[in-house]
Amino acid sequence: KSEVECLIKLFDTLVAESSNRFAAVGFDRNMFRDTLHSAFGMTDDMIMDRVFRTFDRDNDSCISVVEWVEGLSVFLRGTLEERMKYCFEVYDLNGDGYISREEMFQMLKNSLLKQPSEEDPDEGIKDLVDIDYDHDGKLSFMDFEKAVRDENLLLEAFGPCLPDIK
User: Fold this and answer.
1) What number is the average pLDDT over the span 65-91?
2) Which pTM was predicted?
3) Where is each EF-hand domain found (predicted)?
């Protein structure tokens, strides 16, 4: 109860600081991104945009206090199951219930190209296609869930969309 109250207070404080047109009901994408950046160190625009869309359950381009509390509940304290569903939603760019090869590449190119490594970014995508257990060329939630249960590090394979332990 006290954590929820703190989240609501934080929400109210952030909304009060905001001067956008949504201030009466919540906050918009820019304010949400600023919060993700300042509170959790997120810098990847694409990831922050996807996190916004995942929090914004009713698709009205505004995070309400309920969406804020429910989203942060999974984001900060979610069970493995909840976090898997959340990450899958973040990575499923077109919302069709699958992560296609194109979606993998879109997510991976941002995180892989920034790493100064010898490995070709396409190799990382090929490695991830190995978790396509039913070999249909795309990852279903079942493929993703099985892979993450086998290797928890895969939860953020396409880019960090969860906060670190700090």
Assistant:
1) 92
2) 0.81
3) 43-78, 79-114
